[in-house]
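Pilot study result, target chain (726 residues):
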Amino acid sequence: MVRKLKTIAGLGWSRGPSSAQETEGSAANLVIALAQSEAAILWSTDADGRIASIHAPALAALGVQLADVSGKRITSVFEDAPSDSAISQQRSLSLKLSARAKITNHIVRCVNKNEEGAGVWLQLSGFPHYLGDQFVGYLGHAADVTHLIVDHQTKMLQEKFDEVTNFYNAAHFGKRFDAAFKSLAHAERPCALVVMEIDRFQHACERYGIGHMDCVLAEMGNRLRSALRHRGEVGRIATEQFRIFMPDVDDRGDLAEFAEHAGKLLSQPYRVHGRRIQLSVSIGIAMAPYDAVTTTELVDAANLALRSTKQSGGGSYSIFSAELAEEASRLVRIEQELEGAMERGEFALRYAPLISAGSNEVCALRAEVCWNSPELGEVLPDIFWPMIESSGASADFGEWMLRQACEDASAWPGNLSLAISPPRGFLKDPDFRKIILAAASDASFDRARIELEISEEFLSADAEMAKRLGDDLDAVGVRLVASDFGVGNSAIALLADFSFKRVEISPRFVRDWVLQPERTNAILGAIVSITRSFGVPASIREVDALDVLDAVIASGIEVVHGGVFSAPLDQAQIVDEGSVVLQTFRPRGFARQRAERITVLRKIGLVHDDHYYEVLLKNISRTGAKIAGIAGVPVGTEVVLDLGNGQLAVASVVNTDEKSQGVRFEVPLVSDGNGGLMTRHRISPYTLAEAGLPVASLSGDHEALRAWKDAKKGKPSFVQLQLTHL
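Predicted structure:
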């Protein structure tokens, strides 16, 4: 047997540094290995580590030809496991060969692929061989352990990755997140945590089935990877929730853009086995070290932002801010007061005139809900409406809206149409048709004058429900209006499938027009062109300035409503003498549309030269703000506004009087996704720490430049006024 082994290996045996008996014993061990494993492979090398021979029957299994590997270094034919592999902790094969060390059960992978196109894994053993004192190469054996390695790798993947999306699972993501966060914090580098949650996921699972939704999740994972572009790591934390860890991110504008892009991409329809499924996602974002200095704090901040998004109706994003926690507690109180508010008679309807752009005459009135709470005062619809939408009482609320609106409209002069946008729960009520018939009949109101506004997103999300709604409305003679039109991907399909009285273009285009008028004009023109091709007129709301009115009329929009014509009217204003809605409305108001302003009243800091002033922030928009509290400020003066929490905004004064100034920001603010505004960048808390503030406290509400208050200053350029008198 020993002689046969010598022949196969192509090597002669002789005494080396060790005894002849030891050499013969090694050969005997090799023979024993072959006898014990039919899959064993013989190999040998020369003194330079080049392959001299391989057991011929093994070549096909390895996917190689003897001519291809003969004379090649063994390390070019067999490679070590990748560095990120669980079996990569062994010393390298090259190192062992150079040291002429014994090789025992070393795991390698064949560079060539086998007949099935897979890489073969081998367990390699061998010993150095000598002729006298001269080293002549290695003689060894190997066993195919591919199935063991593949099984091991599969197990490791299952332990680390979610099998549906191929993202990290919750446990492994948590480990990587903790380690990466600590590393970045040690290096004083920023990071962001993005939390995404699929809206109404359980409802979708019940409707479409787990199998369909797994297909959706797999495609959602692909889309999210496309949006992320290797800028972070993703973990599937729960059935419907993902977390994204993004290192070295400190631009909230970039995060907002990512959130908007990802939200739109993930909300596009999914085609699964012939079914069209549409979902939306809610997103919460927080950053370290600005919002948090530990992983727990960062997760809590991102979750709070996510909760804010969902409370606002979902399908959008929120970026954490210091005011968000305070707002969250306020929203809880609003939710508490909302319960029972309808029974207490705290809601009322007002009606916004819809104006024909050609004649400036009223063609319809749109019902808008007002809530005047004895405890909270007037609560804006943007705040309470999403709560109604998500509550179990939304169907009852919708019925109240319809009945009250029909009763009011029955007293209107002329043949004015009633436009109404009830909550989603009402549209899903199985008695939907009966309620409409009863409301119109009880009020003696012509159903043909009712225009029911339903969002493009709702109509496109569930084709079966949308068809049922359309059939019900046709049956009772109520006209259908598509609202928030033009932001999704279903516009043309909806126009083909439904008979609309009109389409109401999303007011977001009015808001976009301020920043991108040319682009927005082109988009509006394209939308109107499409609607006209189907014979459907277009309308738009929230038009508050004459320049925007001119733009939307030029685009071909036929119906307009907003502050440029009239604020919403009480029922008494409509029916008293009947003249207010029969008149021709002349456009009035601002000549130019200003960026959307948020009314505020809080103290902030203002820096000029070496002096720090306290001023009142009265309102703020993306592009500017109004302040009060200093006098003697010339137009053109450059100042820095300290908005708190490390937010510094460079601005120039564009108008001034004795007590207040209007300023324009050098860099526009960005939306926090939840109705607020913020600077793109903040002063790093680590920078503030160098000035003496403890890092542990930097996630709180600190004035970025408080040191200015106590520093030696020169003569102030402006007069500081007492804020209590303003």
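One observation from the pilot: The CA atoms of residues 521 and 555 lie 7 Å apart. A full batch analysis is planned for the follow-on phase.
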